[in-house]
Amino acid sequence: MSRTTFRGGVHPNDCKKYSKDAPFEVLLPKNEVVLPLNQHIGKPAQPVVAKGDPVRMGQLIAQADGFISANVHSSCSGTVKAIELRRNVLGVMVQSIVIDNDGKFTPDPGIGSDRNYDKMTNQEIIDAVKWAGVVGLGGAGFPTNVKLLPKNPEEIKYIIANGAECEPFITCDDQLMRCHAPEIVEGMKIMLRLFPTAKGVILIEQNKPEAIAAMKKACEGTPNIEVLAAETKYPQGGERSCISLVAGKHLKLGMLPADVGCIVDNVATVYAIYRAVCKTEPLYEKTITVTGDAVKEPKNLIVKIGTSFEELVEFAGGIKDEIRLKKALCGGPMMGFSLAELSTPVLKNNNALTLLTYDDVEDAQKQMTTCLRCGRCNNVCPLGLVPQMMAVAAEKRNYERYEKKLYGMECIQCGSCTYVCPAKRPLMQLFKHAKAEITAAKKQQGGGK
Q: Which helix (H) or strand (E) holds 126?
């Protein structure tokens, strides 16, 4: 592959310096564990335990409800304290299973048992991934077993393991590739077993030389898997950017990656596939970065899902002395979102807590002017959209023009346009609001069913 980048994009300071060389540390929660039933796209899982039931680590506590849903497993041992509404990272009250953690982390029988996937059928592999509750760990949390069942599996040409980690500050995928490259490659081999005509591509940005070296070494002797070192540019880790670079295809609105012959999964998801299939281990823990200029000891952690963000901050030494925490982000500054409170639990698809002494959004609001018509936003949009015109349509609530003429629903909300805007216009926020209103209106009309 000769190409190393995609159209548009921006080059923000990657801010990886805080945690990029911090080795993984294991954080075991001390307090209760809160496990929301909708940690994925699709229908929430349904509880299979009741208040007062004893549970063990790795035990199935909520079962997938339908094709697009995902199992939830306990991440500790203890007793079901409650099944009730709790606030999630988006500030929404959602049904959750609360476990009174006994601190022993006693595993459920069979968890961690070795399996040889060469002796498993394809259906047994998919069933193992489904049982484990594996979802996409780099984005919205789409159930992985569904991705592994495209309509035309023979048309899949590329399995892409996304290790770009282009979002500023976040480094847990970098550390995962450095430390667990052989397991990620095994996870890729498992996926290629399901799609024998496909090629495996592990895409990593060039600012991660140690990860690139580790993955290349792990791929030695495997001709159908290669490592692609991509230019360091945001949003290289976006699904559409990955597909554009690897397959040279444009993923249009409403299309799935499989429609253009690709399956894209974050490297952490590929690792979780390996753990589910080869180690009989459900997705009850994950890697996460605690970083930013406000935290004392930035870290890359392995945490139990359902641990509160408060415990992460405490484990990282707390907030620096004599400074004011201005903003806490779930994720990074480009696509992350502010946390109203740190008592909320870590979910399957959360990969960072970024603690900052400044607030770029607040600063931009103070400097905002009218549009200068400079065209910078148009130049950096990775999809070739026209944010300048989209913003006008969104502000006027001319949603028919926004959707039908300007293809605004294709926006991936990467924030590149907002980043380069000299007028400090809140473009991404406008687009998020417009898309939400259009989607809500379609649901009311019955078109979103």
A: helix 122-131
